Amino acid sequence: MGLSWQYRRSTLTILGLQSLMLAMTLSGLSLTGVGIDTIRQLGDPSGTIPRWPLGISVPADTSFMTVMCVLAAGILAVSLMRAMLQNRYTRALSKLVQGNVVVTLRRQVYDKLQRLSFRFFDDHASGSIINRVTSDVQNVAMFLNGVLFNLINLTIALAIFLTWMFSIHVGLTLACLATMPVLWTCAYVYAKLIRKDFRTNRKMRDDLVLRISESVQGIHVVKGFARQDVEIEKFKQSNDRVTAILKRIFLKDSIYMPGTEMIMHVNTIILLGYGGVLVIRGELALGGGLWVFAGLLNEFSAQVQLIARVGNRVQDCLTSAERVFEILDTPLEIASPADARTVDHANGDIRFEHVDFGYRLGETVLHDVELHAHPGQCVAIVGSTAAGKSTLLSLIPRFYDPSAGRVLLDGVDMRQLDVESLRRQIGIVFQENFLFSNTVASNIAFGHPDATESQIRRAAEIAYAHKFIAKMPEGYQTVIGERGIDLSGGQRQRLALARAILLEPSILLLDDPTTAIDPETEHEILEAIDNVMCGRTTFIVAHRLSTLRRADQVVVLDRGRIVQTGSHEQLMQAQGHYRQTAELQVADKESKRLLGVT
Known about the structure:
By secondary structure, the protein is an alpha/beta fold. Helices cover 63% and strands 9% of the residues. It contains 20 helices and ten strands. The protein has helices at 2-6, 8-43, 64-115, 118-123, 126-168, 170-176, 180-217, 219-224, 228-281, 286-328, 389-394, 419-423, 440-444, 453-462, 466-470, 489-501, 519-533, 545-548, 568-572, 577-595; strands spanning 350-357, 366-373, 378-383, 404-409, 412-413, 426-429, 507-511, 537-541, 553-558, 561-566. It has a six-stranded mixed beta sheet. Strands 2-1-4-5 form a four-stranded antiparallel beta sheet, with no helix packed on it. α7 (180-217) packs antiparallel against α9. The radius of gyration is 37 Å and the shape is elongated. Mean pLDDT is 80; it is low at 590-598.
């Protein structure tokens, strides 16, 4: 409703058009009643004199055919006017809902998603998020058409219909409305029953979208393990669950809608019985009385039935609204304070002071981490799987905030800094780097879209990526496939390095950049890393000795705790996890040499 009021001019125009269409409907009904009474008076001059709307009077000597022609022209004009209004109403409503509200709401949801912390994405599956941005937003916007405007129109229409019906005959109106309590009770019970089904339906649809997304992204794994039939069966089960809940909704709907129609028919029986007696007694005119009353009751019944359909739509819209506004109302966990300090240029002094962190309440991944990286220093982080290496890196650009303790940049708690300016000081290369389906140049310049061609090329040269880019069909303008699927792992890593270095960051975060690559590619990437690290504070998650030897300080993590720190040489002279790992790597290399394996 707040969104629609942002476009109040369009909203008021639509409401005005609704009122005019209602007036046209009532005018046509009234003129038809006059026509019936005019015909009846021709056969029985002593009968009820036709009552024209709005106090209009017709000269007594006006011929019957003249009156009927005037009425016919009036009814035709009213019908034409209503058709024109309906056309204008449909276009205005479509523009408001699809052209304004849907676009605005979807933009707001997407904008909020970009600002939410990683924790939100940890807690919500991608299928659910995609569904919320697409179908749920559409459903919420359709609340305007299917619920809000209909309810406003219903309120106005029902008030007018009831007032007019009471003005015709109070007793007949009360008799015909005697079934209303039953109808409202049915609507209330139906609404309670159906809402749970709509919630379940949304959840099932999330699972279905996730199933499709995972199957498409993991198609190589599916085919590689010949699991197509299994995946097809899983999709069928997800699809069947969606179908089952829809059948349950349709079943309840198929009982409720005919039930309300039957109640409406009871009203018609009362009208014919009681109304017919009133006409015979002369207490009610046939055209301007019973006919108009019948038309009003028919319109009233249609509006009440519309309430039933609106009730159905309300449940679907409310379910979607809960999911959409869960995103919009989620507080920004990672945000800049009101008096945030902007970071124009960082020296790169990073300090962890008694830092604890856990992804969920009651869980601790990092324990009392104490670490200091001086400007320009390279810090290597090593440890077993799930030791907390990537987690520690994620605290530096404030993807998460510590549960306890603090992380400082140049002596300032990072929570006091402007988030965007902080992250512009940091270049990040992830273990699995995401590349967009765009040109090579656009991928390198992702964090610096205004970069010149020479700047992009220089970054690529520093990252040892220029040579293979130059061999591509269109060089830097070559469009790479989704997620960089048509590039090798080493090429993707070097593009990621170029993307990071283009920002000219003071701090560089490298999350295991040489994992799962061959020795030749590793050598090229390490040379690129040497170029990139020059003059920058660097944190690098690594396992290989070739990388660890380059570090000024090696930090050994074990179950979220720092158990050793020092240079490679210092740690090799001490007993502990680092030396054991290094000796295993040395032994493995010697085994390969003896076996003649390269």
